[in-house]
Design brief:
Length: 218
């Protein structure tokens, strides 16, 4: 089947069959597509076999694999499942403590997509706010915000995150404080300092947080 397709498509590149330059290129692309289809048919591969479309139970198993590469792909794929990946939270918590910086980043990102069901990861995410990788810190902060009020136990680390060198981390730290709505001298002082932040989004978020806290019943 592949041989017939190849012979047919290369006719387009012959003189009289159109542009002599475009023909071979078009034929090459068509031949490549035909080969891919043939290989997929022979091996049984399909879109259903790609990590992003694998079922959550399979990905949960992959998170325990001995190879970091497999665990990384599983964590990345779980990002596409959102709240449906709640069963993967324990494995993602383990991944957050990996020695592999990229796996920690992917685990934090996957947790940020799960939302409130990721509450058991609050303590691990609090630690991740101090990660060496700014992307891990960002998604850890984003995950804590997505979890909601259960993130309150990470308050000390969130306060520290207000001084993170990355503005996007500071921004989510402010949003977490606003969400939690816990007024106190330390929180108020930290937010007032954030109103002078070098980043405009952080400044505006801090102003909104202070306004919200001022309306909270004492």
């Amino acid at each position: 089947m592949v041989t017939n397709l190849t012979a047919t498509t290369f006719k387009a590149g012959r003189p009289g069959g159109g542009s002599t330059n475009a023909g071979p290129r078009r034929a090459f692309r068509t031949e490549g597509a035909a080969l891919c289809l043939a290989l997929a048919w022979l091996t049984g591969c399909s879109d259903a076999d790609t990590p992003a479309t694998q079922p959550v139970p399979r990905l949960v198993e992959d998170l325990q694999d001995a190879e970091i590469r497999v665990r990384y792909k599983a964590a990345k794929a779980l990002e596409h499942h959102g709240a449906r990946a709640a069963d993967a939270v324990p494995g993602l918590i383990d991944a957050l403590s990996s020695t592999d910086v990229q796996l920690r980043y992917r685990a934090a990102k996957a947790l940020s997509k799960i939302g409130a069901e990721a509450a058991p990861a609050v303590a691990a995410l609090a630690v991740a706010l101090g990660d060496e990788n700014p992307r891990t810190r960002y998604y850890a902060a984003k995950a804590l915000h997505a979890i909601g009020p259960s993130s309150g136990e990470a308050m000390p680390e969130v306060m520290q995150a207000l001084r993170d060198p990355k503005a996007e981390v500071r921004y989510y730290a402010v949003r977490i404080l606003r969400m939690l709505g816990k007024e106190g001298e330390d929180v108020g002082n930290a937010l007032r300092l954030a109103t002078a932040d070098s980043d405009e989004k952080v400044r505006k978020a801090a102003e909104m947080a202070l306004e919200k806290l001022s309306r909270e019943p004492r």
